[in-house]
Amino acid sequence: MSSRKFFVGGNWKMNGSKGELDNLVNLLAKNSSETEVVVAPPFVFLDYLHNKKTNFALSGQNCYKESKGAFTGEISPKMLKDVGADWVILGHSERRHVFGEKDDLIADKVAFALKEGLSVIFCIGEKIEERENNLTEKICFGQLGAIKDKIKDWSKIVVAYEPVWAIGTGKTATPEQAQEIHQALRKWLHDNISQDASNKTRILYGGSVTGANCKELAAKADIDGFLVGGASLKPEFANIVNSKN
Ligand code: PEP
Asked: What are the catalytic residues?
C-alpha cells in the first residue's frame, strides 16, 4: 500500500458560475474520504469560494512568472494566494497546445510559483501521433526534463500525466496503459531526481476520468489520484473523490 496520499483535482476550465460552485461545495461537504481534494475554478470565482467553508483546497488554472507589472491579462502567484489558492495548474495541454506555451516558459512559471509559495500541479502528456510513433516516454520525459534544472524541491509538485488524446474526448487510457507510463515516470524521477522524489511524488492520471472508470484506474500501484475536467462539473465527481475507498 502506497504512503502517498490520494489526490483528486477538479479543473473547471472556463466553465461554471457561483451557483454551480455552491452545488459543488454542498456535494463535497458530505465527503469523508481521506483523499486530498483541490478544485480549480476560473480565477474570478476563487475569492467567492475562499469566503465559504469548504473541505477542499483551491487552485488557480494558470499564473505568470512575474510578481507584477505590465502583463495585461495575467495574474501572479501572490494574487492567487491573496484569494485563497494554495495551488496552481501549470503546463496543462490546453495552455501548451491552444495557447502555444512552450517548455521554457512553463518551467519558468513552475519555478516562480514554487518560489512564491504555491504548490504546483504540473501537467505533461503526449499527442495521439506521438503515442502512435512510440514517442510517449520521450515526450513526457522531455516535459519533465524541462523543469528539472529549475526546480530543487519536488515536495510541492504533483505530476499529472494527461495524454492529450484522452482529454475531453471520452477516450480514457486503459488502466494498463496508464500504469505503464506512470511506472516509467516514477523511474524517471528515481534516475533523474532522487529516490525520495520517486517514492513521494504523486503522479495523477487525467483524461476522461469518470465515476464509471475511476475505481479500476485508482487500483493501479503508480496512480496516486486524478486530474478531472468534465466530470468535476458533475455529481459523479464525489464518486471520483471516493474512488480509493
Ligand atoms: C483536464 O482538463 O485536465 C482533463 C483531464 O479533462 P477531462 O477530464 O475532461 O478529460
From this structure: 92, 162
Q: Is 187 among the domain residues?
A: yes
Give the chain's end-to-end CA distance (angstroms, integer).
13
Query: Has residue 1 got a pLDDT over 70?
Result: no
Calculate how far, in angstroms, residue 227's C-alpha sits from the geometric centre of ligand 1: 7
Q: d(Cα 172, Cα 210) in Å, to the nearest integer?
A: 9
Residue 86 lies in a domain: yes
In the chain, the number of structural domains is 1
DSSP annotation of 149 reads T
Position 213 in a domain: yes
For residue 207, give every residue at least 6 positions away whose Cβ sits within 8 Å of its Cβ, in sequence order, or none.
125, 162, 163, 165, 166, 167, 169, 171, 172, 173
Q: Which CATH number fits the domain that encloses residue 94?
A: 3.20.20.70
Condensed to tens digits (0 to 9), the pLDDT of residues 185-208 reads 999 999 999 999 999 999 999 999
Pocket flag, ligand 1, residue 210 (CB < 6 Å): no
Domain that holds residue 46: 7-241
